[in-house]
Design goal:
Radius of gyration: 17 Å
Strand order of the largest sheet: 2-3-1-4-5
Strand content: 5-15%
Structural class: alpha/beta
Largest sheet: 5 strands, parallel
Distance between the termini: 38 Å
Helix content: 40-55%
């Protein structure tokens, strides 16, 4: 066991470690906003790590498919990695569809409510389908992709997220600033103040 704790690591970095758990449908804008948040925090001197669902599927979670059990395991593994990074004193930005409330709640319980902010990146399904940067919705509607969240697999909307971002009515900078404002309110950053 390490003799240096999370508090000492956070103090050295001059920040309050926490997890921003960004959830929403494919095409809602999670990765775009997550990247912008990380850029803004980095410019303010914060130590961050972005865990993006697509990138995790190429490495750590590359052996998982998209059945419910695999989605659950995807969230479990990501939660454990995020927890380790939190212990290192980082601000961890997790950007995953994470369709099931139960798994998001388990991720929260793993670290504690005061270190976990659920960020609902919300856009109506038709907006996500129009954006469809990878052509996934068209393929799912054609039956080429089974178990596609929002089409043939459910997405359970957050019931009480700490932050609710509407990507169909605001731009990426305004939404990133909304997140930073909540982080300032919680004493996690003075970035942008």
């Amino acid at each position: 066991m390490s003799t240096i704790g999370k508090g000492a690591r956070a103090e050295q970095k001059g920040q309050k470690p926490l997890i921003l758990w960004m959830t929403g449908l494919s095409g809602a804008g999670k990765s775009t906003i997550a990247n912008r948040i990380e850029e803004k925090l980095w410019r303010c001197g914060h130590h961050t790590m972005l865990l993006d669902g697509d990138n995790l599927r190429f490495g750590l979670n590359g052996d998982l498919a998209f059945m419910d059990a695999d989605r659950i395991e995807n969230i479990r593994r990501t939660s454990e990695v995020a927890r380790l990074m939190l212990e290192a004193g980082l601000i961890v930005i997790c950007s995953l569809i994470s369709p099931f409330r139960r798994e998001r709640m388990l991720a929260r319980r793993l670290v504690g409510a005061d270190e976990f902010l659920e960020v609902f990146v919300d856009a109506p399904l038709d907006v996500c389908q129009r954006r469809d940067p990878k052509g996934l919705y068209a393929r799912a509607l054609a039956g080429e992709i089974p178990n596609f969240t929002g089409i043939s697999s459910p997405y359970e909307r957050p019931e009480a997220p700490e932050i609710h971002l509407r990507t169909d009515i605001a731009d990426v900078d305004a939404l990133a600033d909304q997140v930073l404002e909540e982080l300032r309110r919680r004493g996690a950053t003075t970035c942008g103040a």
